[in-house]
Amino acid sequence: MIPCLPCRHVDDVLPFYTALGFAPTYRQERPSPYAVLRRDGIELHFFGVPEFDPAQSMGCVIVLSRDTAALHAAFAAGLRAAFGKVPVSGIPRMTRPRKMQGTRGGFSVVDPGGNWLRVFRASDPGDETDDNAEGGPQDRPGPAEGRLGHVVATAARQADARGHDDAGIRVLETGLARHADAPPVQRVPALVYLAELRLRTGDRTGAAAALAEVDALGLSPADRTRLAADLTTAAELAADL
């Protein structure tokens, strides 16, 4: 099955998907604008509608990947090479891989047409670690992530999966206040995600405040190694500010 997605013009989406590593395999202008892009096992078709509003798009595709982190890294590298950064707010944008409450973990790409590519972890056949009692493979936070790990997963389900950024912010702010005694290694992922969501909603001052909290935490060398991905994200957000 091949999804067919709307956009204002195919030239809006072609450079973006080319940066993600997709190759155009077909294009026409008449009788109607149409383009086909392919990357490995993912094939997407686009049709142009000049009066289309990307902000109102309900286009959505689910992509299952064995390694969501590797795919995200490839996408991010392509976006940085083509556009100088990974967009985290507005249209287009890309979220980061995270565990999400009640579903399998992954990330989302919102393309220039406002269409969502929801990239989720594909479970291995016979994977005994998956709990399918709630409708699919679950990626629950581990004990080392503490209660704030569950807070981040709940916020990610609201913001990254559903697009309710304000709800995700409220979840994170409430969780950080409720678990103020959590160790720094557990607070950093929540604070970095809070900074990302605040930036995504245009609250640059709030984003800077969350990043300042991260800088003020006393992290050991071992903590910094464990939190390398989060601290890299924090640096990228600071650069965007």
Quick rundown:
The protein is of the alpha+beta class.
Distance between the termini: 41 Å
Under CATH, the topology of the domain at 141-241 is which? Serine Threonine Protein Phosphatase 5, Tetratricopeptide repeat
Based on secondary structure, the structural category is: alpha+beta
In DSSP terms, counting alpha (H) and pi (I) runs of 4 or more, how many helices?
8
Radius of gyration of CA atoms, rounded to a whole number:
19 Å
Oligomer: single chain
Summarize the structure in words.
With 241 residues, this protein is of the alpha+beta class. Among the domains are: 4-55, 2,3-Dihydroxybiphenyl 1,2-Dioxygenase, domain 1, CATH 3.10.180.10; 141-241, Serine Threonine Protein Phosphatase 5, Tetratricopeptide repeat. 44% of the residues lie in helices and 20% in strands. The chain is built from 8 helices and 9 strands. The chain has helices at residues 10-19, 68-83, 146-161, 165-178, 184-200, 204-216, 221-226, 228-240, and strands at residues 4-7, 23-28, 34-39, 42-48, 60-65, 93-94, 98-100, 103-110, 116-121. Strands 5, 6, 7, 8 and 9 form a 5-stranded mixed beta sheet that branches. It has a 4-stranded mixed beta sheet with strand order 1-4-3-2, covered by helices on one side. Strand 7 and strand 8 (103-110) form a beta hairpin. Helix 4 (165-178) packs antiparallel against helix 5 (184-200). The N and C termini lie far apart (41 Å).
Ordered list of secondary-structure elements with their pairings:
Layout: E1 4-7, H1 10-19, E2 23-28, E3 34-39, E4 42-48, E5 60-65, H2 68-83, E6 93-94, E7 98-100, E8 103-110, E9 116-121, H3 146-161, H4 165-178, H5 184-200, H6 204-216, H7 221-226, H8 228-240
Parallel strand pairs: 1-4, 5-9
Antiparallel strand pairs: 2-3, 3-4, 6-8, 7-8, 8-9
